[in-house]
Write a structure and sequence with these properties.
Length: 317
């Protein structure tokens, strides 16, 4: 019996090894994988979106500080060993490489182009602020998943250390990049209240309230339309939010650790839109976040977009 077991052990180890190999993250190649030069990447971007014009792909070390003659961009990029103008990695973990590209597009801009099975590439900006200074995306892996250590100047303009770099680790979850959270605390969310203000333009003004039973009220005040050519929606509406969308929003709020976010966020320019997010949770504790510019964090940015989408992806009455 012992001899039989001894003979079977190599076979068992071989099977286990094959099983482990099957779980390996395999990348299926697309057009992204064949791109080797800046010129090829530039043509690829314009083939996806012809509205993106007058841009130049370049390394961070080639950017100059707009407000001084310092070599801030070069010195920080060199210290972080960020020496390429584009990088490839599977950020959304779908088995297809994505493309991170650094470009001069009126402002310093970082784009992410997502690959997928249908070769229907999608472009999203990783930099989301106006008058953007150099930022420094450093790609690494956590448990086999590509993440970005995102270094940037402190956005708190009251901070005296303007050149001090702040690092946020970004991971692609819930359909976008959010701040990585290794320890998630689960809270019972009883009510979500979301209100927007106007801006110097046609920003949608509305109020949305959702209780823990998914019963929602939507007050559409101004400029609420799914696209520019669509008819504007006005009035008061109600519905039961679909379970999938509701759970995604609740899970995301818990993932970004909403109770420990700041109460106030603000960009350093004017005439932008603001919003107020109020969450009642656990033993009727409330958390209120006022966000002028609506990009306080990457996680909040995603929450706002999901709440915005509810205006048109639910059966309002």
């Amino acid at each position: 019996m012992k001899n039989i077991l001894f003979l079977l052990l190599p076979i068992l180890f071989s099977l286990l090894s094959c099983k482990g190999q099957n779980k390996k993250h395999v990348i299926v190649k697309t057009k992204i994988d064949s791109l080797e030069s800046n010129v090829e990447v530039e043509k690829f971007i314009t083939s996806i979106d012809t509205s993106i014009k007058n841009f130049k792909i370049q390394k961070i070390t080639d950017f100059k500080d707009r407000f001084s003659k310092s070599d801030f961009c070069k010195s920080k990029a060199d210290s972080l060993n960020i020496d390429k103008s584009f990088y490839k990695a599977d950020f959304d973990n779908n088995g297809y490489n994505d493309l991170l590209v650094i470009i001069d597009y009126y402002d310093f801009t970082v784009l992410v182009i997502y690959g997928n099975a249908n070769h229907n590439f999608k472009i999203e900006p990783l930099t989301r602020r106006s008058f953007q200074d150099c930022v420094f995306p450093k790609i690494r892996e956590i448990d086999g998943v590509a993440v970005i250590d995102f270094y940037h100047k402190n956005y708190d303009w009251n901070n005296k250390s303007k050149n001090e770099l702040v690092k946020n680790t970004l991971i692609h979850k819930y359909g976008d990049f959010v701040e990585y959270n290794p320890e998630i605390s689960k809270h019972t969310i009883k009510k979500i209240e979301f209100e927007t203000t106007g801006c110097f333009g046609t920003c949608p003004v509305f109020n949305l309230v959702i209780d823990q039973n998914r019963i929602a009220k939507f007050d559409a005040n101004m400029y609420n339309r799914p696209n520019r050519k669509a008819k504007e929606i006005k009035g008061k509406f109600s519905t039961e939010i679909k379970e999938k969308e509701f759970n995604e929003i609740v899970d995301l709020l818990n993932y970004i650790d909403f109770p420990n976010l700041k109460n106030e966020y603000s960009v350093d320019w004017t005439d932008d839109q603001s919003c107020t997010l109020k969450i009642t949770y656990d033993d009727d504790v409330t958390k209120t976040i006022n966000d002028y510019g609506m990009i306080g964090t990457y996680g909040l940015d995603r929450v706002y977009k999901m709440l915005y989408s509810l205006r048109f992806n639910q059966n309002w009455k």
